[in-house]
Design a protein that fits this description.
Radius of gyration: 13 Å
Strand content: over 45%
Number of strands: 11
Helix content: under 10%
Shape: globular
Number of helices: 0
Length: 124
């Protein structure tokens, strides 16, 4: 069974950093595209970053450019989202998603399966 498990969320002060992990089991990320999404209270889920493991391309939502970095460690079969300079408006549940495609996307409909989410709270 293909599964994704996120970890690394928590409570952090504004300006702080967190590194989210998305570990895959039952498959490898070799030919997959992976996306990170967030859903803030009362808002729709939106794509904030994605990466194609095949093409090496990546995408960032404008509001996280320069602050967040997506990366893949194929040896560990894990995707990371390094989040720096966090703001209260980054507070959300963060999800990773994967699809068997060389193309990544910021649209959730593109992805085949999802992790359970990890809560990130940015507050003083």
């Amino acid at each position: 069974e293909k599964q994704l498990v996120e970890s690394g969320g928590g409570l952090v002060q504004p300006g702080g950093s967190l590194k989210l992990s998305c570990a895959a089991s039952g498959f490898t990320f070799d030919d997959y595209a992976i996306g990170w999404f967030c859903q803030a209270p009362g808002k729709e889920r939106e794509g904030i970053s994605s990466i194609s493991n095949t093409l090496g391309s990546s995408y960032y939502l404008d509001s996280v450019k320069g602050r967040f970095t997506i990366s893949i460690d194929n040896a560990k079969n894990t995707v990371y989202l390094q989040m720096n300079s966090l703001k209260p408006e980054d507070t959300a549940v963060y999800y990773c998603a994967a699809t068997d495609s060389e193309y990544d996307s910021r649209f959730e409909e593109w992805y085949e399966f999802w992790g359970q989410g990890t809560q990130v709270t940015v507050s003083s």
